[in-house]
Amino acid sequence: MSEVATARRSRITPEREAELYGAVLELLREVGYDAVTMDAVAARTRSSKATLYRQWGGKAELVVRAMRSQKPGSIAGIDTGSLRGDLHTVVNREDDCAMARNAALMRALAMAVHMNDDLRQAFKELLVEPEMEEFQRMIRRAVDRGEIRPDNPALDYIVHMLVGAFATRTLIDDLPPTQEFLTSYIDAVVLPALGVTTH
């Protein structure tokens, strides 16, 4: 994020920012991305539209930052000494209820991401790329510890596997993603693909 963006955003208190993000996410669940407008956010949060644009530049950045605010913090600090421990810790940071809410939000955005270049760009820059970098650091540690061979072909697909399991759980099984489902998926699919024993 640029220094200008940091400076402009710092004028709003964390409490007010959290309130705004909560309202954006409510609207997103109610009407979907395309029908969320800066006017609607301004009305719901008793803000001026000018303030919203000054703080966030536009709808795409506001929506993605609101979604990012729901994430349970960075995974950068997770280091249990094993890849299995690290991945299980990532999954267990959110309870099943929060996971189901986040899955619903992702479904609300899925189509819009494909249709809106500005949303896709904000999504990649603010959510996907930072998460990928953190996962890659976690994987590098596992390679350095000797848990995974550095030439394992599955290394490039770990995030795809995890996101796929999360995103398709409802589509395939008509059930929300849960801690139990994701930890069993990690043990049955992700770790064996990487040559990591789970016993």
Automatic annotation (TrEMBL):
Signal peptide: none annotated. GO terms for molecular function: DNA-binding transcription factor activity; transcription cis-regulatory region binding. Residues 37-56 bind DNA. It comes from the Bacteria. SUPFAM superfamilies: Homeodomain-like (SSF46689), Tetracyclin repressor-like, C-terminal domain (SSF48498). The keyword Transcription regulation applies. Keywords: DNA-binding, Transcription, Transcription regulation. Residues 14-74 form the HTH tetR-type domain. The keyword Zinc does not apply. This is AcrR family transcriptional regulator.
